[in-house]
Amino acid sequence: MHLPPAANGTGGRWSIVVLFLGAPLLFAGNMLGARWLAGTVPPMTLAAGRWLVAALLLLPVVWPWLRRHGLGAVPPARLLLLVLLGGVVTVAPQYGAASYTSAGNIALLAAMTPLLVAVIERIVWGVTLRPAMLAGIACAFCGIGVATFRGDLSALLRLEVNPGDALMLAAILGWSGYTALLRHRPVALPPMVLLWVVAAGGALCLAPLALLEWWQAGVPPLGAQAIWGMLFLGLVAGVGAYAAYGRAVSLLGAARASMSMYLVPAYALGLGALLLGEALHAYHAVAVALVLSGVAMGTLQPRRG
């Protein structure tokens, strides 16, 4: 890896290594936290609580900008779409999925994001898909199929799909749409201000759904585990992961930094087995190999002479 000029010193080099390895670990922490709280906090309540914590933590950081500039001339409709995709569709189904499937499966599905972004760009903006991208999409989908059907061909033939995998697919479609929209219709806001908008907007949009959960099933007993869990998710997934990844992008560029996200499944599978007692199977290794091979084929471009 060739470091940018500002990072050629030993301290800069190590900071990049820490960010490159640490950002996906924080994203994997989100999936582990969701699995740890599954059955304790309803998904809409957990999603709204996570964003509320993140918005409150970010408010002192972004308040000076908001007081001086507000939200500028960013079209409200575009901000609302970003909030719905990045703050609601991405998060709520993911926490629902945690009740049905493992953190490793959630991470494997999330690893397909770069390829799904390419498909959305093709459909919406007409961006050409390279043959290598098509091959990568096919390979990664095979890996997701192995994980979804647990390596059981008979389950594939019967189309027995885990509800959690279906929910997670909806979540990563939302995140992929959010990523593609930001890439092709960027907003003139600092990254932390945009994150605060998504967090605050996500909490507001999810609050009525959380209240509906309470009306249908009763107010959940939010004990110490639930409170600490939401604080953990708000700090680690809502702020820490985004901040670390944003810094990595500023130092390495988006293409190189995005490669770090392919470490998320490995982290989630290993930590899920170590901390949550989730079983590791041979099909996990096959699925990881296929997904990472597909993503590598689809995103790595040969260096031109």
Automatic annotation (TrEMBL):
Listed InterPro entries: AA-Vitamin_Transporters, EamA_dom, EmrE-like
Q: Which residues form the EamA domain?
A: 15-147, 163-297
Span-the-membrane segments of this chain are 12-36, 48-66, 78-96, 102-120, 132-149, 161-181, 193-215, 227-245, 257-276, 282-300
Coiled-coil regions listed: none
Q: Please provide one cellular component term from the Gene Ontology annotations of this protein.
A: membrane
Q: Which UniProt keywords apply?
A: Membrane, Transmembrane, Transmembrane helix
Which subcellular locations apply to this protein?
Answer: Membrane
Q: Which domain of life is it from?
A: Bacteria
Q: Give membrane topology per the record.
A: Multi-pass membrane protein
The text of the family note is: Belongs to the EamA transporter family.
Record protein name field: DMT family transporter
Source species, please?
Teichococcus wenyumeiae
